[in-house]
Amino acid sequence: MDPARKRTLRLIALLGTALLLAAALMYTTFNASTEAKTPSEVVAGAEPGRSYELTGKVVDGSINRQDGDRLRFAVRDRDGTTAVPVVYSGVVPDPFREGREVIVTGQMSDDTFVAERDSLITKCPSKFKKTPPARGSTA
Amino acid sequence: MAAVGSACLLVALGCAIYALSAPLVAVRTGRRQFVVSARRAIYSLAALLLVAMALLEAAYLRSDFSFALVAQNSSSATPTFYKVTAMWSSQSGSLLLWALLLSLFSSAALYLTRRKHADIAPYATAVLAGIAAFFLSLMVFFESPFATLAAVPADGSGLNPLLRHPAMMFHPPMLYTGYVGFSIPFAFAIGALIARRSDADWIRSTRRFALVAWTFLGFGVMLGALWSYSELGWGGYWAWDPVENASLMPWLTGTAFLHSIIVQEKRGMLRVWNVSLIIATFVLALLGTFLVRSGILDSIHAFGASTLGRPFLAFIVVILAGSVALVLRRRDDLRSTARLESLCSREAIFLLNNLVLVGLCFVIFWGTFFPLISEAVTGTRASVGPPWFDRYTTPLALVLVLLSGLGPIVAWRRVTLAAVRRAFALPVAAGCLVLVALLLATRAAESVTSLVMFCFVAFVGAAVAQEFWRGASARRAISGERWSIALARLVGRNRRRYGGYVVHIGIAVVMLGIAASSAFVDQRDVRLSPGESTELAGYTLSYRAPTADILRDRAGTGAPITLGAVIDVRRGSDRFVMHPSRNYYPSDVAADGAIGRFFAGEATSEVDIRWGLTRDLWIAVQPDLRALAEPIREANARFADSGGGVQAVVLAALAESYRDHPPPATFRALVSPMVIWIWIGGAIVMLGALTAAWPSAEGGRRRLTSVYAARLAHQASGATTR
Predict the structure, then answer these.
(1) Which of chain B's residues have a Cβ under 8 Å away from the Cβ of A18?
(2) Residue B573 and residue A26: Cα distance in Å, rounded?
(3) Which of A89, B43, B279, B442 is the most exposed place for a label (fewest CB within 10 A)?
(4) Which residues of A touch B (CB under 8 A)?
(5) Greater pLDDT, B628 or B358
(6) Is A79 contained in some domain?
(7) Tell me, what's the pLDDT at B378?
(8) Adjacency order of strands within the sheet including B615-622
(9) Residue A55 is nearest to which of B298, B300, B605, comparing CB atoms?
(10) A41: nearest CA partner in chain B
(11) What is the rounded average pLDDT of the residues B57-70?
């Protein structure tokens, strides 16, 4: 085989392998990912036994710390009032409070969102914000 | 003062537009003086932005709340250090910093290359001026750092308490220096493409900038990890958060670039690859700056909706499309002058290392942007978590570490079997020895990937040490110098090469820290009353007493209230005391009550860490405020209109009540083995990178000797074939 042909073949094999690997990566991601849902979507219909990422805002006055590191609160839609109660245990991020945007992973069971341990993520009160953070209000 | 600042920005924008157009006029008309004046316009741009920056900093120091920016993230009570650094925690302030760093870097690069590259310089100047013009127009037309408030508030809202950590204040300027630094090789690469100069000249002139940028970016990433570990109360240093990933991606492609340019310099290969890598790096750096501002991805660092998302995206698209089109049009000029001769050669290892680095970057890119991708493909937003990232990045990281040991000991062009045997014996033996020792003496076998990583790290360490030893003993054999002098001169005369080897050691040490701490961390979340104890990994932790302090925040962030715990720690005969605590910052919401507002604002964990070379003990506390709720409600009603003096007395009484009747508190404790080596390794990387980047006084002489050496080698090879 002449060297130029050999080189082309080698290049094709290399590119082919890279493409295959990339395709495998892309394909498996769809199975490994968790769907993000808003409270109203979770309330409307969530498959039991399936994990979701619940995103929304913490309802005012809903935070209830219980014994141990258990925490109960409710999450509502970003622009709405539909809310879902959440049971959570594990580390609570520093910025967590009423009115903050949170992301929490877990499953629905009997109208309550049972969160996985340590899965609570709270968004910082915007490092880059034009107005001072308007906390406490429902906006 | 604000008007002067705004004027500075406007004039600076004018300078940038001039510096963008003048070089193009020069190319058209052949009048070189336009290039010179464009360069001087860039110098003036830097001077103007320095003045603007000084004005803004002065406003912060004077606590001039007529500046909207100062009112938003500073206050008269903010400690001075955080007043100075608060500037870049705001959006427009960070844009100003970006533009200033860009103008300084551009001035330095254009000054140093002013007598070279007559054909590349006009285009490079125009590209740099174009980038500066973009950032300046963002500030002039969208978000001015010099916006003023009509009604001047009595005090500012203060800096976000979470950001009050030294690492966090140095983190943004370091990252920006990294991001901005890559614009220099990018601009010269584009210049070389337009001017059809496909040789390695642009690389020689800008590689130092690329190296400095890479160093700072890496340092910034390290600081971010340190902040996460020691300030955020969750105990980890990396969460695969979109913003973290955004800073890692250009660092990875930058690493690939620093390696592949060596191949182009030495062998004239990989030309298309090199320009593509620097384009990718710069675009990823812009993307990193953009992600922080767009709010398109959910991240712990939420950034709120910003007006800058669209212009940024448009700019990125223009840069990317323009660069790709340019590379495609010039592809015929970019043919390699040499071929890969053997798969067992240093250039092949470099190629492989590049593929792995780019693959790693692709994996991280895919995972980071997966929410957007899945929304586009399936209609639902879905995301992948840290386990997904770990699964794909771990094997790639293993291969990378192995390659970082192979690269230095495999020769250019091709290797012989005898040379392989000679070079590999010691490193392979070191790896095997570590394997056996770990299997016999520790529980390292519980995590196979960590075990493999430990062996690879030993391999890299031995391989690099062997290179140093060989080089130094060769010098000794010729000159008879002492070991220390031979070693110092060896590094001094070949800074780039041996600095690079030190970087390899540093990265191996970082990986050692990551492998050990991620696989063998012990963690416990526990609720304790004073007097109770818990066990963790051989440590006995006893909650001795609660603490409650008014205006005595040990971290110096200006928190009025600090609640914490005194913990007695015992491990064998070793005894010490730790003080984890939690700072409470007041809220500005009237509904929280006159006293209650002191507890209702932001709260931050002040983690206590007992650093150690073999393991860290890390403790965070979450005090239970429920017992205080009733007294606070009462105090709110009774002292609603009381002055500051009375409120202080009431707070002191509340603190005393917390000390006297302490409720149980929740603790999180971690025993993290060897985690400190991540930052020690980071420091080694910095040291190596600075060694490699340090300008050498004998550059001119060495160029002569290398020409001479090349001639000798040519004659020698001619002699053998004859």
Answers:
(1) 355, 359
(2) 53
(3) B442
(4) 7, 18, 21-22, 25-26, 29-30, 32-36, 53, 55, 65, 67-69, 90-95, 101, 103, 105, 118, 121-133, 135-137
(5) B358
(6) yes
(7) 83
(8) B522-528, B665-673, B615-622, B608-610
(9) B298
(10) B380
(11) 93
Host H or E run for residue A37: strand A34-37
Among B663, B695, B710, identify where a domain stops: B663
pLDDT at B662 over 80: yes
The amino acid present at B493, given as its one-letter code, is R
Domain ends where: B138, B164, B190? B164
Tell me, yes or no, whether A1 and A60 share the same domain: no
Which residue in the block uniquely carries the two structure tokens 């995972």?
A: B367
* Domain count for chain A: 2
Task: State which residues form the domain around A25.
Answer: 1-33
Task: Report yes or no on B388 lying in a domain.
Answer: no
Residue entry with tokens 């100062």: B70
Instruction: Give the ipTM of the model, two decimals please.
Output: 0.81
What's the CATH number where A119 sits?
2.40.50.140
pLDDT at A130: 34
**Are residues A90 and A23 both part of a single domain?**
no
Indicate the length of chain B as a whole number.
Answer: 722
Is A23 inside any structural domain? yes
- Residue B539, both tokens: 């440590």
Indicate the length of chain A as a whole number.
Answer: 139
Nearest-angstrom CA–CA distance, B685 and A31: 38
- Pair B409, B423: CB distance under 8 Å: yes
Q: Where are the alpha helices (DSSP H) in B330-447?
A: 346-378, 386-409, 417-441
Task: Tell me the pLDDT of chain B averaged across its residues.
Answer: 88
Which H or E run includes B249? helix B242-267
User: Binning pLDDT at 50, 70 and 90, where does residue B720 land?
Assistant: very low
B545-567 per-position pLDDT tens digit:
999 988 888 777 878 899 999 99
* Same domain assignment for residues A20 and A71: no
Phi, psi dihedrals of residue B371, rounded to the nearest 5°: -55, -40
Mapped onto helix, strand or coil, the DSSP state of residue B599 is helix
B339: closest chain A residue by CA: A7
Same domain for B569 and B500: no
Question: What's the pLDDT score for residue B303?
Answer: 46
B444 and B593 co-located in one domain: no
* pLDDT in the model for residue B459: 96
A4 and A25 belong to one structural domain = yes
Q: Which residue blocks in chain A are alpha helix, DSSP H?
A: 3-32, 39-44
Q: Is residue B448 scored above 60 in pLDDT?
A: yes
Full residue range of the structural domain in which residue B437 is found: 416-518
Statement: residue B131 has pLDDT above 80: yes
What is the rounded distance in angstroms from the CA atom of residue B97 to the CA atom of residue B99?
5
Who's near B452: CB < 8 A, 6+ residues apart? B398
- H or E stretch including B369? helix B346-378
Domain count, chain B: 3
